[in-house]
Design goal:
Structural class of chain A: mainly alpha
CATH class of the largest domain in chain A: Mainly Alpha
Order of helices and strands of chain A: HHHHHHHHHHEEHHHHHHHHHH
Largest sheet of chain A: 2 strands, antiparallel
CATH class of the domain at 66-236 in chain B: Mainly Alpha
CATH superfamily of the domain at 66-236 in chain B: MetI-like
Helix content of chain A: 55-70%
CATH topology of the domain at 66-236 in chain B: MetI-like fold
Helix content of chain B: over 70%
CATH topology of the largest domain in chain A: MetI-like fold
Largest interface: A-B, 97 and 100 residues
Number of helices of chain B: 12
Oligomer: heterodimer
Strand content of chain A: under 5%
Shape of chain B: globular
Largest sheet of chain B: none
Shape of chain A: extended
Order of helices and strands of chain B: HHHHHHHHHHHH
Radius of gyration of chain A: 32 Å
Number of strands of chain B: 0
Distance between the termini of chain A: 51 Å
Structural class of chain B: mainly alpha
Chain lengths: 415, 269
């Protein structure tokens, strides 16, 4: 019967696939047109600003803008000896201009990143410009500071004539360029950035593990409870997601204070004899972050646990498996997709924390985001902020890609 | 507890231990949310228990101080406008993405969701720089635009989830009865997915209303939002008026949460 049917069916004409695709094209375009406003909106208000900000990690406008004549004068310089008189004349002219335009300070600040003491050297020249006498300028510069005779100093200026700089990116991983342009580890005393990076990963890891240890049994119990009770327990997990992160952090500030609720309770119960320092500690930061992230870990695990048929454990038991063995070999492996989804989400979100470390943590608990904000707000060092942001973004996006691959964006649910 | 009849004694003990542990975790999860309420009505300016005397003075402080009331108004206005934008764009996008044959669905979804996972400081500094160049820092417009971007994924996800249970045959039925695409949408699709859209809008509102970091970078004294006002307060010197503000924020969150769950219940019934 089937054979007759298939024999009598006409062979599909050549190019049917292409014709179908052509016919479908208006529908596909219409579907895409619906998403277009949101896409354009996100590109303009979200993606483009972030992209633009990140480019400041390699932009190097200061020396080019302020010292054009000096750069030209250094064009044929060999790089090994003190440059000729024309370089000093050009620098004096550029700085005289900079003094009028009030751009000398920005230049000094920029060069100071690469070579300590450059700011004061530049500003000292700017102050003494009026006192320079006729005749050779090189000795007069050297009289202000003998380092002006050093080729290394001029090498820094020449190197930064380039519109792009690797300086901020290298610094963000504790590397630097020496006078000849070679890349090397920076001195121990200045190597802080890998520590910050490691600390951020470590705190995020601790929080992820803590939420899993607390969240897995909780999800298990919620999934086992009779549906009326389970519904109520689920509300208890969802409610914290709705309350503001700032309010939850505030609650922890109050709880962890030296005269706070936890210390009072511990003293009253006789568990401690003196007040513990909980605020401004790593313990406090991780505790508060674990509290905030817990629902993100619990919910995906719970949704997977609910889909595991109840009969499986019974079958395992009836086949002779002891209770824990049945749980470990039959039940637990099936929860892994939920565990992966929950832990990856918590790890991604923990990497970017700002508010909680800022309010609950001490100086040693500040994470990447806190340093990015500090570089903008206190130091006005956009390049360094952008380099750190780039590093944080690379870490976040690589784990996000793993999340998309393993879990998929369609599987994200909000309660 | 919740065990089959054949469970052994050891199993029962073990289950009891796990259930106790889970309830302790749930208490840890919920407890801190409610700690701000008693402290906000304590007469003493110290955060100590047991509370000796009760008073509404910190709420009076809050509502008599124009800094706090203005920040509350600013937060509400910013949240309303950004919710409107995010709900419009997010719903349209979800309608498109849910159609069969939507091109590059995975890549588009990855981009749409990314504001949810992006470290907020990076979003904030980017907006600060970009909007600064456009003259939009220290304006309400800048804040509304940035908050709408952060809220869009929440709308997309909830509306998509509502659309996943929507029977597309209904659209065809509507069309076969002579309605145009727009007519079908308003007469058939919209009423059915409305609970999803409202849930998304509530989430979008909560995202904007509670957001601190972007607001910290984009607002000046005049557009300062309630969370920003709280954040600076906690940094300087934490005072009981902040507890009153935190209690109000939590009350709004709980109210939104209750409304959302009522909508879900109605939808299920």
């Amino acid at each position: 019967m089937t054979e007759t049917l298939s024999l009598s069916a006409p062979a599909p004409p050549a190019g049917l696939g292409a014709a179908l695709r052509r016919a479908e094209r208006p529908n596909r375009l219409r579907a895409f047109a619906l998403a277009l406003p949101a896409l354009l909106f996100l590109v303009v208000t979200f993606a483009a600003p972030i992209g633009l900000f990140l480019t400041t990690a390699v932009r190097n406008p200061e020396v080019r803008a302020v010292l054009p004549q000096t750069i030209a004068a250094l064009d044929g310089w060999d790089g090994h000896s003190t440059p000729g008189e024309e370089a000093f004349i050009a620098l004096a002219a550029d700085l005289a201009r900079a003094k009028e335009d009030n751009t000398a300070a920005a230049l000094g600040k920029r060069l100071n990143y690469e070579s300590a003491g450059m700011r004061s050297r530049i500003m000292s020249v700017v102050r003494h410009l009026g006192n320079f006498k006729d005749g050779a300028l090189a000795p007069q510069f050297a009289a202000l500071d003998p380092v002006w005779a050093s080729p290394d100093l001029w090498a820094v200026i020449k190197r930064n004539a380039s519109p792009m700089t690797p300086y901020y990116l290298l610094t963000s991983v504790d590397l630097g360029q020496d006078a000849s342009g070679g890349i090397a580890r920076v001195e121990e005393s200045q190597a802080v950035f890998l520590d910050i990076l490691g600390r951020t990963l470590w705190i995020a890891g601790l929080v992820t593990v803590a939420t899993l240890v607390l969240g897995f049994p909780t999800a298990y119990v919620v999934s086992l409870a009779p549906s009326r009770i389970a519904g109520f327990l689920l509300l208890l997990v969802l409610l914290p997601l709705w309350t503001s992160l700032l309010v939850r952090t505030t609650a922890w500030v109050v709880l962890l204070q030296t005269d706070g609720v936890i210390n009072q309770a511990l003293l009253a119960l006789g568990l401690t004899t003196e007040k513990l320092q909980l605020m401004l500690t790593r313990f406090g930061t991780v505790t508060a972050m674990t509290h905030i992230q817990l629902p993100f870990t619990i919910l995906p695990i719970l949704s997977v646990m609910k889909s595991i048929p109840e009969g499986q454990m019974r079958a395992a038991r009836s086949l002779g498996a002891p209770p824990f063995f049945a749980f470990w070999r039959v039940y637990a492996p099936q929860t892994l997709p939920g565990v992966a989804a929950g832990c990856l989400m918590t790890f991604i979100l923990s990497l970017g924390y700002y508010i909680t470390p800022a309010l609950v943590g001490g100086p040693r608990d500040q994470m990447m985001s806190n340093f990015i904000a500090t570089y903008i707000n206190r130091d006005l060092n956009w390049g360094m902020a952008a380099a750190l942001a780039g590093l944080l973004l690379v870490m976040t996006l690589s784990i996000y890609l793993a999340f998309l691959r393993l879990v998929g964006a369609e599987r994200i649910k909000l309660g | 507890m919740w065990l089959p009849a054949y469970a052994t004694r050891g199993e029962r003990l073990c289950r009891l231990a796990v259930v106790t542990f889970a309830f302790a975790v749930l208490a840890f999860l919920i407890g801190p949310l409610f700690i701000v309420f008693p402290l906000s009505v304590s007469k003493d300016p110290f955060f100590t228990f047991p509370i000796q005397d009760y008073s509404w003075r910190w709420y009076a402080d809050f509502f008599e101080n124009p800094r706090w009331t203005q920040s509350l108004v600013n937060s509400l206005v910013a949240a309303l406008f950004s919710t409107a934008l995010a709900t419009l764009f997010g719903t349209l996008a979800a309608l498109g993405i849910s159609r069969p044959g939507f091109p590059a669905r995975k890549a588009v979804m990855a981009l749409m969701i990314s504001p949810m996972i992006m470290p907020v400081v990076i979003v904030a500094v980017g907006a600060y720089m970009f909007f600064g160049a456009l003259g939009l820092t220290n304006t309400r417009t800048g804040l509304v635009l940035a908050h709408a971007a952060l809220s869009i994924p929440f709308v997309v996800v909830t509306v998509l989830s509502a659309l996943s249970t929507y029977d597309t045959n209904l659209t065809r039925a509507g069309a076969s009865l002579g309605a145009g695409p727009v007519g079908v949408f308003f007469a058939v699709t919209l009423p059915l997915i409305l609970p999803g859209i409202v849930s998304g809008a509530l989430l979008a509102f909560a995202v904007s209303f509670d957001e601190v970091i972007v607001a910290l970078f984009l607002t000046g004294a005049e557009q300062r939002t309630l969370p920003v006002q709280m954040f600076s307060g906690i940094r300087d010197q934490i005072n009981p008026t902040i507890m009153a503000a935190a209690s109000l924020l939590t009350t709004v969150s709980i109210a939104l949460f209750v409304v959302l769950n009522l909508i879900r219940r109605v939808k299920r019934a």
